[in-house]
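We now fix the convention by which a protein and its fold are recorded. Think of the row as the fold of the chain written in a discrete alphabet. Here is one such record, which you should read through line by line.
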Amino acid sequence: MSPVPLWPGDGEPFPFPNRQSLFYDPHTGEYVVHYVAGEASVEPVLVRFGTHSLVDPEVGFDLVPTASGYQYMYDVRNGLYAKQSIEKIRMLASADGTPRSSNPGWTTRTEAAKVPDAAAHIADSVNLEWRSSIPTQSIAPGTKMEGLVIDSTSLPGFTAMICSGHTQSKEYSADAVSYLPIDLRDQLARVFTTTWDAKTRIVIGPKFVKGTSQTEIAQNYLFGIKALIRTGKLDRDSTFTNGVVKLLSAQVDSGGLFFLDSNAFGSSENAAPGLETVIAHALQYAFK
């Protein structure tokens, strides 16, 4: 639930070790900084920063080939019981993607990626971002937004879509905490990361330039499929999932000696409608 101890209901944190100065208040969705600035201080310093993780995104995705490459399409639903509206969506992708949204209340931008991708190495990657420019156009709990689109020449693979919520509390930034002791600044920097300050979902997106090794692509698909199995999105015992995992594992285990092409994955008719069919099409395009 939290990387730090919870803020006590009575607001008195002294049952915790004296060195513990950072807490999480689940009632307000805020991280609470509480420390004594000096021995002579009577009142401790108390400051709160709002988290952006109180969202519950469900992402639908699909892709189609185009004259120049592929078009990747997404719709994002926020769960009915989420405590925040989704106001920012990010995705790590190959650098040739051009994101857009059909919703006029959202703006798009790209920036060089600073964090390595856990699903696969991308030599030249960017963070694609959609952000709500009008508060009323954010994805409120129980609603869905369609029209997030990426046009790219890159081959499909699994990547992360990161959703952040809107907070009405004080926003964390390096400048906002510059006056705090360095150990507290370090603690805050660790909690205001993607792991704790957003919600991540696995999706298909523009991932690989043409000529990427089959082993690298196969490793990526194994990573993504196994992640979807763990979260219950895919049935590990389905004929499609079982067959694909065996083929991809054989390719990786062969050290690249086992060659796959789109025909190896059979017809998409072997896949169940929905997520399995989307993955089947992506595999056929990636190994074409």
Observations:
- The first helix runs from residue 182 to 191.
- The first strand starts at residue 22 and ends at 25.
- The CA atoms of residues 127 and 161 lie 10 Å apart.
